[in-house]
Specification:
Layout (H helix, E strand, L loop, with lengths): L8 E2 L12 H13 L5 E3 L2 E3 L3 E4 L1 H8 L3 H13 L3 E5 L4 E5 L15 E2 L10 H4 L3 H20 L6 H11 L19 H26 L1
Antiparallel strand pairs: 1-7, 2-3, 4-6, 5-6
Helix pairs in contact: 1-3, 2-3, 5-6
């Protein structure tokens, strides 16, 4: 097993956090802090941004000693208060620690979590700085990956999948995220199913209109 290097820093005010006394939830959250990347990395050709890591309920269960059901419950609690953001694909899940949202008493200067990892192997700031070019490459690759995942649902027709993809891959004003990446929880299969259900009445209405015009 690879030896972990570095540390995270927690403010003492974490004891006032609403999930601090919830043993399972606080345990899982600290585990997420320890697992998340301190800089952008690649995993099997996939870009994993700072503060994110790839995992699954089963893996989190093994790593934390919690049952899968307890992991699911803790994840939902952390999502509800925006401590973390998650999105899932058919192959893996990504968790992002949203430290900016973890504030006490609505005081922007009283951050619950201040993540600071120091590593002997950490490159210089100039080497890990994210350039506009890197961001463009990153979102292009993510868009390609997203398209592949959408069109892997072959039970739906290509026209429907294409309209779904065109809507959810739209980028924000800064060009950093696609529309689907801004959602706290994302289940692609359920989203496509709902999209298809919403499209069906439109198709039936069009058919009725054509029939009347004949």
């Amino acid at each position: 097993m690879k030896k972990q290097i570095g540390f995270i820093k927690l403010y003492r005010s974490i004891i006032d956090w609403e999930w601090y006394t919830d043993v399972n939830t606080s345990h899982l959250f600290i585990h997420c802090l320890l697992k998340s990347n301190y800089s952008m990395k690649k995993w099997q050709g996939i870009i994993i941004n700072e503060g994110e890591f790839i995992t699954s309920f089963e893996k989190l269960s093994i790593e934390t000693g919690l049952s899968i059901s307890k992991v699911r419950t803790a994840i939902k609690k952390l999502q509800s208060t925006k401590a973390i953001t998650t999105y899932a694909t058919s192959k893996y899940s990504v968790i992002r620690v949203n430290s900016n949202f973890n504030k006490l008493n609505d005081n922007p200067n009283d951050l619950l979590i201040d993540k600071q990892i120091i590593s002997k192997s950490q490159p210089d700031n100039n080497q890990i700085a994210t350039t506009n070019n890197n961001i463009e490459i990153s979102i292009t690759k993510r868009k390609i990956r997203f398209r592949e995942e959408v069109f892997s649902h072959t039970k739906y027709n290509k026209e429907l999948l294409n309209s779904f993809f065109n809507y959810w891959n739209e980028q924000d004003k800064k060009g950093l995220k696609m529309r689907f990446e801004t959602h706290e929880f994302w289940n692609l299969e359920n989203r496509i199913k709902k999209w298809a259900e919403n499209e069906r009445p439109k198709i039936q209405t069009n058919k009725t209109t054509l029939h009347k015009n004949r």
